[in-house]
Amino acid sequence: MKREVLLTLITGAIFISLFLIAQVFFHPKNTHDEVLTIGFLYDGDESIPSTNNFIRAQHAVEEKFGDRVQTVVRANVSSDQIDTALEELVGEGCNIIFTSSYSHALIAKEYAQKYPHVHFCQATGDNAHEAPVLKNYHTFMGEIYQGRYVAGLVAGMKLKELIQKEIITEAEAKIGYVAAYPYAEVISGYTAFLLGVRAIVPSATMTVAYTYTWASFSLEKACAEHLIAEDCVIISQHSDTYGPAVACEEHFGKNVFGVGYNQSMIDIAPMTSLISTRINWIPYVTGAVNALLEKRPIEKSIRGNVHGNDIGAGFELNWVQMLDLNEIIAAEGTAEKIAETVQAFKKGRVHVFLGDYVGVNPYDETDTYDLRKEYRENAKSSAPSFCYVLQDVITVEE
Predict the structure, then answer these.
(1) pLDDT at position 34, please?
(2) Residues 6 or more apart from 180 whose CB is under 8 A from it?
(3) Do 274 and 244 touch, CB atoms closer than 8 A?
(4) pLDDT at residue number 9
(5) If we measure between CA atoms, which residue out of 149, 109, 105 comes closest to residue 124?
(6) What gap in Å lies between CA 57 and CA 316, rounded to an integer?
(7) If you ran DSSP here, which 8-state letter would residue 298 be given?
(8) 197 Cβ neighbours under 8 A, 6+ residues apart
(9) Coil, strand or helix: which one is 109?
(10) What pTM was computed for the model?
(11) Which end of the chain is flanked by fewer CB atoms within 10 Å, N or C?
């Protein structure tokens, strides 16, 4: 009898031990007492492609970390509401706050100085290196010029196909680009796009229409329509809404095609949208959250090109992505060209800002750059720094 009781006790102890081990391995969330509160500040909402793209990272954090984190969101925050929104996020106990628009950068850094116990992570920011340099203020961005260049190759191959079919002439290979502001981020992007196009069709020309706003569906659409009226065959954008894609689709049948940004536009423009590219925010955002949970420095915990409190990466670490190619309208061989070029970027074999061109700084005409000497974009920062408009690019304001 004593032997049976002893065996029963031992068996029970084994089962209890196995149960406890299972709790540790399969329910790690219960082993953490601290819940990290994460704030997200958006200038738009899910209806805006750029914001929706960032929301993907928010959802990835929520899915990956479960009840180890709680998220607090402020969406549709206008420029005059940034202070209030940040104060509210700090007041709700956020340990880390992600600000998603370039327009947030100056105020976000001010709040980082005001609240040194909170980490502020600024997407697309370029001021982490500026005095004062703060341990709790971080900037990050994907090296999107790579995606822009590949998108340009896709557009160039479509132009080449139209030329070969004698639908347009080489002189009619015109590109229109809807751009928000003449910032380095935007100028770098449309220059990389144009150089991608010209790698296929050297005669291509480009007109850039500035909207001077990040997100205005009606204005972006009007700019695209103006460019189409000027006989542009390809319309691309560095703006935040679907407006340019809708304009292209409304001109279906007139040999107008679109290249998008932030998310695929094929659902919006199935007969005219060629491809889109985007920054993938998930690696950084999930990495930064994990670093705080593990009580480790952010920049030492994330794979990328680190520049102090600033970090970025490109195709090699999936920080930049090409979205679905519209095989129905893309030129033959485009998918293969994309794959080949992405692999070349991963191996450091693509030299985008190089050629027989001179660029002029729109803020200082005495500041020029001769691209016969290669400009190494993102060499010192995650934010683009190429701020030289090529001399044959036409710029207009709407």
Answers:
(1) 83
(2) 186, 210, 211, 212, 213, 214, 238, 239, 240
(3) no
(4) 46
(5) 105
(6) 19
(7) S
(8) 152, 153, 155, 156, 159, 173, 175, 204, 206, 234
(9) helix
(10) 0.90
(11) N
